[in-house]
Amino acid sequence: MVELNQDTRHGTLLLSIHDVGPRFANEVDRLRDLLGQVAPADKIALLVVPNHWGEAPITAKTPFASRLREWADAGAEIFVHGWFHKDDTQHTNPYTRLKAQHLTAREGEFVGLTIAEASARMAAGKALLEDICGRSVAGFVAPAWLYSIDTNNALAENGFSLAEDHWRIWHPPSGKVIGRGPVLTWASRSRARIMSSLFVARVMPPMLREARLARLAVHPGDTTIPAIMQSIQRALAALAFDHNIGRYDSLLPADLHPCAS
């Protein structure tokens, strides 16, 4: 792991790997190694999908479940990241349908769910991962960072301490926003999206140099594009030079922390 001069840093950098699950076990290992060049294991948040697209379930007493437990034991923050990561809702609201069709490739699972549907999937994911990891999950992040109003209500109902979208991090039970700022991420599903995300990754780190909070999120698909992997490495080095690498739970005020009495 690269040692950096803390005297040059401003604010906090949060790192996360999305879509963690047995379908992408090898890709997750590559991304953990990449982020691990500047961050210890307990400062790389893992966003775990319990059953990716209904085809890759995480079950107890399997090799992947054991690895997940090891990562949790090493201090990694484990987030519930949807249930299927697949949007199977028939959207009747035009605005919601627009977001579902153009902001993601059928992966905004929680963008159109009712509170009952959202709450049931959240509760199931939370129970599964806490049973496997032997500890409370850190929070919940919706696939593609897309939420319905009912989903937001279900977050508080299920007692998640942390949630995030493209622009903020908040404490669902109180609704208090505890961090603001864009998240730097990459897109790999088309040439146009690859090129635009590479451009953003060039210009965003200098813009975030003085920011109190910076976030960098990576996905398994990133590992299939060498240019994206190189871009992640450059952006990571730049952001880590200007920020202290932290944990999501470090943003919670003492009175909102789950360990508070």
TrEMBL record:
<dbReference type="Pfam" id="PF10096">
    <property type="entry name" value="DUF2334"/>
</dbReference>
<dbReference type="InterPro" id="IPR011330">
    <property type="entry name" value="Glyco_hydro/deAcase_b/a-brl"/>
</dbReference>
<dbReference type="GO" id="GO:0005975">
    <property type="term" value="P:carbohydrate metabolic process"/>
</dbReference>
<protein>
    <recommendedName>
        <fullName>DUF2334 domain-containing protein</fullName>
    </recommendedName>
</protein>
<dbReference type="InterPro" id="IPR018763">
    <property type="entry name" value="DUF2334"/>
</dbReference>
